[in-house]
Structure formats: C-alpha cells, structure tokens
C-alpha cells in the first residue's frame, strides 16, 4: 500500500484531528466577466463546511456586473439573465456572513480571492477573510496522482460527478465534495495545510472607460473578446539597471522589479508607484532582475522558482513599500525618485 492509499484509507474516519486545523471553511466559486483586474463577478456560490469538512449549508447568487458579461460561451450567463440580478453591493453583506470566521477554500484560490477583494474594495467594504486554502496546493501536499490541476481531474480522482461545469453553484459543490476527503487525508497524515494570508485591498481605482451602454441586441456596446485579457504598456525606464538590490541598502532608480502573487494594494497601483519612483517594472524574472516582490515566497509560482534559481533577492510587499519611500537617484540625475524638483522662483 502506498503512502497516499494509506492516508486515504485512514482518513475515512480519523481517530484524532490536528488541533491547529481551522474550525470552519467556506468553499467558494465565482464566475466572472473575465480574468483582468477590471473584470467583475457575475455569480457566486459558497458551501459552508465544519472543521471536518461536513456541509452545513450552501448559498448562490447571480450578480449584475453593469457591463458586458464577457465569455458567455464559458459561463452561459447572458446580459438578459443578469439584467435583473442584484448588484454586488446589494449582496455584499450576505456574502460576508457566509465567509466570516472561516478559511476561504477555492480551486486556484488566489484568483477567487482577488476577484472578491476587488469587489469589496469597489463597494468600500472589506471581505471578512483572513486565510485562504487552494485545493491545487493541497493536492500537491498530499501527492495526489492527478494528470493536471483542473477541477475536473480532482473531482474524478475522488469519484465526484460534475453536472454543470463553470456554474458557480455546481463547481462549489464539486469542490466541497472533493475537499472533504482531501482534508481527512491531510488530518490522518498530519499534513500541514497550505494556508495563506488574505490581505484586503486598501485602495482601488477602476481605470476603465465610462460605463458601456446597453444595445438593442441585448449586448453592451464596445465589448471586444480580447478586452478581458488586456496588456498594459508602460513607458521605458529612462535609467540604466544598476544591478541587484542588496539587503539593508536603498533601492536605486533603474532597478528591475518584478511582482508575483496577490498584494494588499492593487497590483497596478503598486506597479505605478514603482514606475513613478524610477524603477523598471518587469513582467518576468531573469538574471537581470534586481528584486522580486511577493507575499508568498513559498508559493512555487514560476517567478518564485526562477528567482530562486537566479539568486534574485525577494522581499514582501510591506518591506517594498518602505523601500519605495527612499529610492536612491540614478547617477547624475540629482533628484530623488520620491521627490519632485522644486519650482523655480
């Protein structure tokens, strides 16, 4: 019998339960208008589970995104279906009550958390979530022999039948049913749960065009299929790269800085601050990268892995924020990056 089989067998009715495990979970799935920072939630589902993964209740709602619904061919929610749905601000309190005092569980949890955090920031509220657990990360901790990291593969491994893929309620149900045996296997094997901190957004700025108007055909004018995966070009950094950041020293203008994972300050706002300070915002990691900013240094993302391979220094968001307050000017520039030249008399 393999270690996994032994864990799975023992997990059917664990005689002991790790005292450090959370006391409750909120298994979440959200469907959205797209994948970008300005996209919106159009449906959400929550299955509340007790500390051992047993279902307590579930909840589902549509959400009017006040814009084109995006890839209808994926989620099936048309403008007509969403037109009479509540706005996010109308369901924010109920949603929060489902999340409160629980660990948010999702498949690729960073995506669901970022979408939820952005919606609450728009509503000038804060989601009551302090920790999240990604079922992809948990399956890796357990060493599950999955062919890929799709939800359907995790479901098939545990014999869970999907009825409506990309429907928030059914996806949440499937995940809840697959999470229960995963949790019990982890408890039986005394496996550390891959819990990560959820930092709410402290700022928000929608940089979109004015709200798009409804057209006679039921769609919204101005929607382009590529608009939900936008790329944003930044001006070239005017300063040469002075090399890698050294711990205990100041950042210097021209340093190449990359970001990985979610941040409490919206990513583009953080990147804007870096650019304004005279830093080069990089989209990937190479031997030339001066610094990687991430709140999840053990996440195993491609950027974190490459940073480790290249020996790139890593700091978290809070440390980076402090460093931004005192950036050393490039040689010969004479003006600190965080200051503006004084006006002439």
User: What is the averaged pLDDT score?
Assistant: 84
Globular, elongated, flat, extended or rod-shaped: what is the shape?
A: globular
- How much strand? 15-25%
User: What is the H/E order?
Assistant: HEEEHHHEHEHHHEEHEEHEH
Distance between the termini: 82 Å
Q: What is the domain total for the residues? A: 2
Question: Taking Cα atoms only, what radius of gyration do you get, to the nearest Å?
Answer: 23 Å
Query: How many DSSP-defined strands?
Result: 10
Uncertain spans: 1-11, 208-231, 334-345
Tally of alpha and pi helices: 11
The top level CATH class name of the largest domain: Alpha Beta
Strand line-up across the major sheet:
3-2-1-4-5-6
By CATH, the topology of the largest domain is: Nucleotidyltransferase, domain 5
> What is the second-level CATH architecture of the largest domain?
2-Layer Sandwich
Concise structural overview:
The protein has 345 residues and is of the alpha/beta class. 31% of the residues lie in helices and 15% in strands.
Describe it.
α6 (135-142) packs parallel to α8 (168-188) and α7 crosses α8. The protein has 11 helices and 10 strands. The protein folds into 2 domains: 3-9 and 22-197, 2-Layer Sandwich (Nucleotidyltransferase, domain 5), CATH 3.30.420; 233-336, BRCT domain (Rossmann fold, 3-Layer(aba) Sandwich), CATH 3.40.50.10190. Residues 1-11, 208-231 and 334-345 have low confidence and may be disordered. It has 345 residues and is of the alpha/beta class.
């Amino acid at each position: 019998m393999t270690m996994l089989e032994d864990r799975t067998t023992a997990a059917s009715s664990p005689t002991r339960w790790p005292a450090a495990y959370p006391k409750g979970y909120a298994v979440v799935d959200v469907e959205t208008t797209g994948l970008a920072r300005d996209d919106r939630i159009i449906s959400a589902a929550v299955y509340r589970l007790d500390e051992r993964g047993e279902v307590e209740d579930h909840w589902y709602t549509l959400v009017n995104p006040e814009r084109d619904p995006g890839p209808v061919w994926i989620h099936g929610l048309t403008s007509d279906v969403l037109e009479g749905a509540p706005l996010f601000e109308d369901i924010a309190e109920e949603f929060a009550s489902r999340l409160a005092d629980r660990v948010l569980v999702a498949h690729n949890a960073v995506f669901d958390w970022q979408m939820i955090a952005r919606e609450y920031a728009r509503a000038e509220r804060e989601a009551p979530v302090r920790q999240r657990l990604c079922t992809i990360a948990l399956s890796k901790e357990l060493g599950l022999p999955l062919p890929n990291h799709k939800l359907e593969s995790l479901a098939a491994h545990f014999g869970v039948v999907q009825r409506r893929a990309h429907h928030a309620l059914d996806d949440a149900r499937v995940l809840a049913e697959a999470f229960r045996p995963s949790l019990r296997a982890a408890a039986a094997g005394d496996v550390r749960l891959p819990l990560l901190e959820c930092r709410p957004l402290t700022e928000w700025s929608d940089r979109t065009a004015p709200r798009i108007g409804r057209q006679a055909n039921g769609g919204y004018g101005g929607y382009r299929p590529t608009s939900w995966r936008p790329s944003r070009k930044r001006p070239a950094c005017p300063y040469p790269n002075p090399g890698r950041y050294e711990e205990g020293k100041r950042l210097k203008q021209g340093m190449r800085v990359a970001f990985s994972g979610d941040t409490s300050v919206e990513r583009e706002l953080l990147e804007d601050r870096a650019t304004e300070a005279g830093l080069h915002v990089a989209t990937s990691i190479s031997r030339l990268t001066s610094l990687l900013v991430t709140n999840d240094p053990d996440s195993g993302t491609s950027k974190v892995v490459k940073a480790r391979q290249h020996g790139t220094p890593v700091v978290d968001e809070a440390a980076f924020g402090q460093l931004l307050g005192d950036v050393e000017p490039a040689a010969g520039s004479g003006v600190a990056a965080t200051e503006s030249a004084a006006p002439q008399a």
